[in-house]
């Protein structure tokens, strides 16, 4: 499992302490995250964990899965599937920067940019 897989597995974790532990294991202290649904840039483990924690209670039974990645040096493009319990699925694309085995910066988009 990659650090990106581990990070997105935390989206389905309803327990605040467990989710923070997962995120803390894979992001740097000053990690910057910009999710398409966040109200701004998130900085650090706690802010990121708090934001990610909004998903599980509103999407009970959902899973978040990395379905494709491309690596280029310390940069990664990841396609993520947000799979709801009722069978609906939404994809997102995230660009992730790494420093060794930690995420330093991540920003995402709804969808994959493919033409409709």
Automatic annotation (TrEMBL):
Highest taxon above the source species: Bacteria
InterPro entries: NTF2-like_dom_sf (IPR032710)
Stored SUPFAM superfamilies: NTF2-like
Gene3D superfamilies membership: 3.10.450.50
Protein name (Swiss-Prot/TrEMBL): SnoaL-like domain-containing protein
């Amino acid at each position: 499992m990659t650090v990106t897989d581990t990070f997105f597995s935390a989206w389905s974790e309803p327990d605040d302490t467990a989710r923070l532990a997962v995120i803390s294991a894979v992001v740097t202290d000053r990690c910057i995250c910009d999710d398409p649904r966040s109200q701004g840039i998130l900085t650090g483990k706690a802010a990121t964990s708090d934001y990610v924690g909004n998903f599980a209670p509103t999407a009970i039974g959902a899973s978040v899965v990395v379905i494709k990645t491309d690596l280029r040096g310390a940069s990664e493009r990841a396609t993520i599937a947000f799979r709801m319990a009722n069978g609906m699925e939404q994809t997102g694309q995230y660009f992730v920067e790494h420093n060794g085995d930690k995420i330093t910066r991540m920003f995402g988009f709804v969808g994959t940019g493919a033409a409709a």
